[in-house]
Amino acid sequence: MARITKLSEAIAGAVQDGDTIALEGFTHLIPHAACHEIIRQGRKNLTLIRMTPDLVYDQMIGMGCAAKLVFSWGGNPGVGSLHRFRDAIENGWPHRLEIEEHSHAAMANAYEAGAAGLPCAIFRGYIGGDLPKVNAKIKRVTCPFTGEELAAIPAHRPDVAIIHAQRADRAGNVMIEGVLGVQKEAVLASKRSVVTVEEIVDELPERSLNAVVLPHWTVGNVVAVPGGAFPSYAQGYYPRSNSFYKQWDEIAKDRDSFHAWMKTNVLDKGPEAFAQYARKHKAAAE
Fold it and tell me: Which terminal CB of the chain, N or C, has fewer other CB atoms within 10 Å?
Protein backbone atom coordinates (compact mmCIF):
# COMPACT_ATOMS: atom_id res chain seq x y z
CA MET A 1 0.00 0.00 0.00
CA ALA A 2 1.50 3.32 -1.07
CA ARG A 3 2.56 5.82 1.56
CA ILE A 4 3.00 9.47 0.55
CA THR A 5 6.01 10.83 2.39
CA LYS A 6 9.20 12.89 2.16
CA LEU A 7 12.19 11.70 0.13
CA SER A 8 14.54 11.48 3.11
CA GLU A 9 12.02 9.33 5.01
CA ALA A 10 11.29 7.10 2.03
CA ILE A 11 14.97 6.36 1.35
CA ALA A 12 15.77 5.88 5.05
CA GLY A 13 13.00 3.31 5.37
CA ALA A 14 13.51 1.50 2.06
CA VAL A 15 17.28 1.40 1.40
CA GLN A 16 19.69 -0.27 3.78
CA ASP A 17 23.42 -1.01 3.56
CA GLY A 18 24.03 -4.19 1.57
CA ASP A 19 20.74 -4.02 -0.35
CA THR A 20 20.30 -4.87 -4.00
CA ILE A 21 18.66 -1.86 -5.60
CA ALA A 22 17.44 -0.89 -9.06
CA LEU A 23 17.14 2.74 -10.17
CA GLU A 24 15.41 2.52 -13.53
CA GLY A 25 14.30 4.85 -16.30
CA PHE A 26 15.53 4.48 -19.89
CA THR A 27 16.84 7.90 -21.04
CA HIS A 28 13.58 9.28 -19.65
CA LEU A 29 12.46 9.75 -16.03
CA ILE A 30 15.78 8.69 -14.49
CA PRO A 31 15.47 9.12 -10.67
CA HIS A 32 18.40 11.50 -10.05
CA ALA A 33 16.94 13.13 -6.94
CA ALA A 34 16.50 9.76 -5.24
CA CYS A 35 20.05 8.81 -6.21
CA HIS A 36 21.35 11.94 -4.48
CA GLU A 37 19.38 11.15 -1.33
CA ILE A 38 20.94 7.67 -1.16
CA ILE A 39 24.36 9.30 -1.41
CA ARG A 40 23.53 11.87 1.28
CA GLN A 41 22.43 9.10 3.62
CA GLY A 42 25.77 7.35 3.12
CA ARG A 43 24.49 3.95 2.03
CA LYS A 44 27.28 1.41 1.41
CA ASN A 45 27.92 -2.05 -0.02
CA LEU A 46 25.01 -1.84 -2.46
CA THR A 47 24.46 -4.10 -5.45
CA LEU A 48 23.23 -1.81 -8.23
CA ILE A 49 21.08 -3.15 -11.07
CA ARG A 50 20.33 -1.03 -14.12
CA MET A 51 20.02 -1.05 -17.88
CA THR A 52 22.69 1.47 -18.95
CA PRO A 53 24.21 2.66 -15.62
CA ASP A 54 24.32 6.31 -16.76
CA LEU A 55 25.25 9.26 -14.53
CA VAL A 56 23.25 8.11 -11.50
CA TYR A 57 25.43 5.06 -10.97
CA ASP A 58 28.63 6.87 -11.92
CA GLN A 59 27.91 9.20 -8.99
CA MET A 60 27.04 6.38 -6.58
CA ILE A 61 30.11 4.37 -7.57
CA GLY A 62 32.38 7.38 -7.18
CA MET A 63 30.95 8.11 -3.72
CA GLY A 64 31.66 4.59 -2.53
CA CYS A 65 28.05 3.35 -2.35
CA ALA A 66 28.46 0.34 -4.64
CA ALA A 67 30.02 -3.10 -4.16
CA LYS A 68 28.64 -4.68 -7.36
CA LEU A 69 27.06 -3.56 -10.62
CA VAL A 70 24.67 -5.70 -12.69
CA PHE A 71 24.14 -3.91 -15.99
CA SER A 72 23.90 -3.78 -19.77
CA TRP A 73 26.21 -1.25 -21.44
CA GLY A 74 27.87 1.34 -19.24
CA GLY A 75 28.56 4.81 -20.57
CA ASN A 76 27.61 8.48 -20.68
CA PRO A 77 25.00 8.45 -23.48
CA GLY A 78 26.17 10.31 -26.55
CA VAL A 79 29.38 11.44 -24.83
CA GLY A 80 31.69 8.59 -23.82
CA SER A 81 32.91 6.85 -20.69
CA LEU A 82 31.62 6.91 -17.15
CA HIS A 83 34.89 7.95 -15.54
CA ARG A 84 34.05 7.02 -11.94
CA PHE A 85 32.94 3.58 -13.15
CA ARG A 86 36.19 3.19 -15.09
CA ASP A 87 38.29 4.34 -12.15
CA ALA A 88 36.67 1.72 -9.91
CA ILE A 89 37.31 -1.07 -12.42
CA GLU A 90 40.79 -0.04 -13.53
CA ASN A 91 42.20 1.34 -10.27
CA GLY A 92 39.92 0.11 -7.50
CA TRP A 93 38.98 3.68 -6.51
CA PRO A 94 37.30 4.38 -4.18
CA HIS A 95 37.24 0.58 -3.86
CA ARG A 96 36.95 -2.50 -6.03
CA LEU A 97 33.71 -3.02 -7.93
CA GLU A 98 32.39 -6.42 -8.97
CA ILE A 99 30.58 -6.42 -12.31
CA GLU A 100 28.04 -8.70 -13.98
CA GLU A 101 27.36 -7.68 -17.58
CA HIS A 102 24.35 -8.65 -19.67
CA SER A 103 22.64 -7.62 -22.89
CA HIS A 104 19.68 -5.22 -22.85
CA ALA A 105 17.38 -8.09 -23.82
CA ALA A 106 18.62 -10.23 -20.95
CA MET A 107 18.12 -7.43 -18.41
CA ALA A 108 14.57 -6.80 -19.59
CA ASN A 109 13.74 -10.50 -19.47
CA ALA A 110 15.28 -10.84 -15.99
CA TYR A 111 13.07 -8.03 -14.68
CA GLU A 112 10.03 -9.59 -16.36
CA ALA A 113 10.79 -12.93 -14.73
CA GLY A 114 11.24 -11.28 -11.35
CA ALA A 115 7.92 -9.46 -11.71
CA ALA A 116 6.26 -12.81 -12.45
CA GLY A 117 7.83 -14.44 -9.40
CA LEU A 118 9.93 -16.82 -11.51
CA PRO A 119 13.45 -17.93 -10.52
CA CYS A 120 14.99 -17.33 -13.94
CA ALA A 121 14.43 -15.82 -17.35
CA ILE A 122 14.52 -18.03 -20.44
CA PHE A 123 14.80 -16.44 -23.87
CA ARG A 124 16.48 -16.53 -27.25
CA GLY A 125 19.77 -14.71 -26.92
CA TYR A 126 23.55 -14.71 -26.48
CA ILE A 127 23.99 -16.64 -29.72
CA GLY A 128 27.44 -15.98 -31.16
CA GLY A 129 28.34 -13.41 -28.48
CA ASP A 130 31.21 -13.40 -26.00
CA LEU A 131 29.38 -12.38 -22.80
CA PRO A 132 28.83 -16.04 -21.74
CA LYS A 133 32.63 -16.38 -21.63
CA VAL A 134 32.90 -13.75 -18.88
CA ASN A 135 29.56 -14.16 -17.09
CA ALA A 136 29.10 -17.54 -15.44
CA LYS A 137 25.43 -16.79 -14.71
CA ILE A 138 24.54 -17.08 -18.39
CA LYS A 139 23.44 -20.68 -18.94
CA ARG A 140 21.98 -22.73 -21.78
CA VAL A 141 18.84 -24.83 -21.37
CA THR A 142 16.97 -27.10 -23.74
CA CYS A 143 13.26 -26.58 -24.31
CA PRO A 144 11.50 -29.82 -23.27
CA PHE A 145 8.88 -29.35 -26.01
CA THR A 146 10.89 -28.33 -29.07
CA GLY A 147 14.47 -29.28 -28.22
CA GLU A 148 15.57 -25.70 -28.96
CA GLU A 149 18.58 -24.45 -27.00
CA LEU A 150 17.80 -21.22 -25.14
CA ALA A 151 19.59 -18.76 -22.86
CA ALA A 152 18.79 -18.62 -19.14
CA ILE A 153 19.81 -16.14 -16.44
CA PRO A 154 18.65 -15.54 -12.85
CA ALA A 155 15.59 -13.32 -12.42
CA HIS A 156 16.12 -9.83 -11.02
CA ARG A 157 14.53 -9.66 -7.58
CA PRO A 158 15.87 -6.41 -6.04
CA ASP A 159 15.34 -5.46 -2.43
CA VAL A 160 14.35 -1.98 -3.62
CA ALA A 161 13.22 -0.44 -6.90
CA ILE A 162 13.35 3.34 -7.35
CA ILE A 163 11.74 5.09 -10.30
CA HIS A 164 10.49 8.55 -11.28
CA ALA A 165 7.11 9.26 -12.89
CA GLN A 166 5.02 12.23 -13.91
CA ARG A 167 2.06 11.92 -11.53
CA ALA A 168 0.54 10.08 -8.62
CA ASP A 169 -2.87 10.61 -7.07
CA ARG A 170 -3.47 10.97 -3.34
CA ALA A 171 -4.17 7.24 -2.99
CA GLY A 172 -0.70 6.48 -4.38
CA ASN A 173 -1.65 5.28 -7.87
CA VAL A 174 1.24 6.22 -10.19
CA MET A 175 1.01 7.18 -13.88
CA ILE A 176 4.02 6.95 -16.20
CA GLU A 177 3.80 8.37 -19.72
CA GLY A 178 6.26 8.60 -22.59
CA VAL A 179 9.30 6.43 -23.19
CA LEU A 180 8.92 3.38 -20.98
CA GLY A 181 11.86 1.27 -19.92
CA VAL A 182 11.49 -1.45 -17.30
CA GLN A 183 10.10 0.75 -14.52
CA LYS A 184 6.90 -1.25 -14.13
CA GLU A 185 8.71 -4.59 -14.07
CA ALA A 186 11.36 -3.32 -11.63
CA VAL A 187 8.73 -2.20 -9.13
CA LEU A 188 6.75 -5.44 -9.42
CA ALA A 189 9.92 -7.54 -9.04
CA SER A 190 11.11 -5.76 -5.89
CA LYS A 191 10.38 -6.22 -2.20
CA ARG A 192 10.15 -2.47 -1.59
CA SER A 193 9.82 0.59 -3.82
CA VAL A 194 10.16 4.35 -3.88
CA VAL A 195 8.49 6.37 -6.64
CA THR A 196 9.29 10.04 -7.00
CA VAL A 197 6.87 12.08 -9.09
CA GLU A 198 6.63 15.54 -10.60
CA GLU A 199 3.34 16.18 -8.83
CA ILE A 200 0.61 14.61 -6.74
CA VAL A 201 -2.86 15.30 -8.11
CA ASP A 202 -6.42 14.73 -6.88
CA GLU A 203 -7.21 12.51 -9.84
CA LEU A 204 -5.06 10.99 -12.59
CA PRO A 205 -5.86 12.37 -16.07
CA GLU A 206 -7.14 10.28 -18.96
CA ARG A 207 -4.44 7.85 -19.98
CA SER A 208 -2.62 8.23 -23.28
CA LEU A 209 -2.02 5.16 -25.43
CA ASN A 210 1.48 4.53 -24.04
CA ALA A 211 0.72 5.25 -20.38
CA VAL A 212 1.25 2.78 -17.55
CA VAL A 213 -0.52 3.00 -14.20
CA LEU A 214 0.98 1.28 -11.17
CA PRO A 215 -1.86 0.66 -8.68
CA HIS A 216 -1.30 1.93 -5.15
CA TRP A 217 -1.08 -1.61 -3.79
CA THR A 218 2.06 -2.29 -5.90
CA VAL A 219 3.94 0.78 -4.63
CA GLY A 220 5.66 1.33 -1.27
CA ASN A 221 6.47 5.04 -1.08
CA VAL A 222 5.39 7.99 -3.22
CA VAL A 223 7.26 11.28 -2.98
CA ALA A 224 6.63 14.56 -4.80
CA VAL A 225 9.98 15.80 -6.14
CA PRO A 226 9.43 18.31 -8.97
CA GLY A 227 12.33 18.13 -11.40
CA GLY A 228 13.48 14.86 -9.83
CA ALA A 229 14.59 13.32 -13.12
CA PHE A 230 16.84 16.21 -14.17
CA PRO A 231 19.18 16.19 -16.17
CA SER A 232 17.21 13.43 -17.92
CA TYR A 233 13.77 14.50 -19.02
CA ALA A 234 10.15 14.15 -17.96
CA GLN A 235 7.76 14.20 -20.90
CA GLY A 236 5.37 17.11 -20.54
CA TYR A 237 7.46 18.84 -17.86
CA TYR A 238 11.04 19.58 -19.03
CA PRO A 239 13.50 18.47 -21.73
CA ARG A 240 16.74 16.56 -21.39
CA SER A 241 19.79 18.66 -20.55
CA ASN A 242 22.24 17.43 -23.17
CA SER A 243 24.66 20.12 -22.05
CA PHE A 244 24.91 18.65 -18.57
CA TYR A 245 25.77 15.19 -19.90
CA LYS A 246 28.65 16.84 -21.78
CA GLN A 247 29.70 18.77 -18.67
CA TRP A 248 29.68 15.60 -16.60
CA ASP A 249 32.43 14.17 -18.79
CA GLU A 250 34.80 16.89 -17.57
CA ILE A 251 33.51 16.95 -13.99
CA ALA A 252 33.95 13.20 -13.50
CA LYS A 253 37.36 12.80 -15.17
CA ASP A 254 39.25 14.03 -12.13
CA ARG A 255 38.69 12.72 -8.60
CA ASP A 256 39.06 16.14 -7.00
CA SER A 257 36.67 17.90 -9.40
CA PHE A 258 34.21 15.06 -8.95
CA HIS A 259 34.26 15.34 -5.16
CA ALA A 260 34.01 19.14 -5.28
CA TRP A 261 30.95 18.93 -7.53
CA MET A 262 29.32 16.26 -5.39
CA LYS A 263 29.83 18.28 -2.21
CA THR A 264 28.39 21.46 -3.68
CA ASN A 265 25.52 19.92 -5.62
CA VAL A 266 24.59 16.80 -3.66
CA LEU A 267 25.90 16.71 -0.09
CA ASP A 268 25.16 20.39 0.59
CA LYS A 269 21.76 20.48 -1.17
CA GLY A 270 18.39 18.80 -0.85
CA PRO A 271 15.78 17.53 -3.34
CA GLU A 272 14.19 20.98 -3.59
CA ALA A 273 17.12 22.01 -5.81
CA PHE A 274 15.80 19.83 -8.65
CA ALA A 275 12.74 22.02 -9.20
CA GLN A 276 15.06 24.99 -9.72
CA TYR A 277 17.25 23.06 -12.17
CA ALA A 278 14.28 21.90 -14.23
CA ARG A 279 12.58 25.33 -14.32
CA LYS A 280 15.79 27.04 -15.38
CA HIS A 281 16.53 24.48 -18.08
CA LYS A 282 12.95 24.53 -19.41
CA ALA A 283 13.00 28.33 -19.62
CA ALA A 284 16.32 28.27 -21.48
CA ALA A 285 14.95 25.75 -23.99
CA GLU A 286 11.80 27.75 -24.79
Answer: C
